[in-house]
Automatic annotation (TrEMBL):
Signal sequence interval, chain numbering: none
UniProt GO molecular function: peptidase activity
Ranges where the record places region Disordered: 47-85, 311-334, 417-468
Domain Peptidase S49, residue spans: 158-306
Domain of life, per lineage: Bacteria
SUPFAM superfamilies from the UniProt entry: ClpP/crotonase
Name of the protein in its database record: Peptidase S49 domain-containing protein
Biased composition regions of type Polar residues, renumbered to the chain: 72-81, 444-455
Biased composition (Basic and acidic residues): 417-428, 456-468
Amino acid sequence: MNRQFRTISALLRHTWAIEPTYAGQYMPQVDAYFNGQLDLRTILASEQSDDSDTEEESGPPPHAFCLRAGSDSGSAGTATRYSIDDPELPEGSILILDVRGPIMKESNCCTIGTEEYAQLIRKAYAHPAIIGGIALVDTPGGQLNGTPTLYDAVRDPAKPFVTVINEGMACSAGVWAFCGSDYIYATQKTDQVGSIGVFVRLRDNTKQLEQDGIKEIAVYSTLSPDKNKPYKDALKGDTKLLEEDLDYAATMFREAVTEGRGERLNLKAGDPFTGKVFYAAKAIELGLIDGFGNLDTAIAKVQELHAARQEGSSGATVTVAPQSGSAAPTTSQSQNTDMLGYVKFKSLAAIHGLAAADITEAHVKAINQEMAEQGYNVAVVSQKEIDDAGTLQGQVNALNAKVTTLEGQVTTLTTERDTHKANAEKYAKLPGAEASGDGKTEEQSTVGDQETFISETDRELQRLKGKA
């Protein structure tokens, strides 16, 4: 009963990330409840009956079960269903979540809550036999509270996660919750994606209460002037403060989608953040989803991502080097998806299990961009870049050695030159040096105001010319 009360309370007081048309269709049921025209006893009795069913009688719950696809075809049609707690759960199983209808924080008689979905995902990620998860989604969105928690669970890089829009829509909170998936597929061209935004619906029933002879008096402490002010002002026609609250939530929504989809978002194709709903083809163009596929496609993709992580599972080495101005030391980290604790980087998880040679420049660029967006002043460098840098450094060292050798040779030649010059000058000053002609010394001579140097050969030529 407490859970049902909290659900009704959420309908009245919470901010919503839901496609407005869908929400409007449900307002008659909400009105019927508050007018005393909707008997919840039947619904509650149904919930109690569902809770009393044993797993042996009903099998795995329809909203969450594990599949082990046929080894030959990998098709869901040949798959066997298991409960996540089944002790016979085979290796290579995949968690399947069936997410239909409005999203609520807590599970109730009508829907499974985001809390329970997140718990199931984390339980699957911790199970050694489960290689990943898939969500079959058809939801207009729903309650804002609880949605970020499901988003965090989906985006956790521990294991691959793929979302399939199951012939319906993934709107508003449905986008927020699952945009962190590794891949998102639409099954049909008529599938809808978007409605990225939040809103709140208020009703002023003052006149109705007055007609019923009821007058409400709300008294606030003089020390609490801002308590409930956004709602009080809105009832008076001033929605500015309430809009500021909604803008904050909408900003968080936008950041989640930007973070979850990363470089796949194509803002040149349009603005996906205005609250508009898009059909599948346009959603693909905008980068909100990745393409068309079905459950079989999703199973194959999870198996592919899992296999890629297993190849080279010894781990590639990724060096985290500080950028300019950073005091952080250079460290070498083993390739482990948990290395960053609670901080989740999809681009980093994408290289889990890859051999160093398989990590491309695009991988490194995506990781550095995501880390920069998160405010980390470090740069990731691939092993190939480290090897290339080592090779270049070796070449530089060799060139420097050659330069040092040449500089030594130049110094030696300069010394020898200076020695020979000094000897020549010394011999030129000895008695009889002019007549001997045996030396190769140079002598400074002055002709007018111009100083020249003449050799012994030149002097001999001049002497012979004089005799002639």
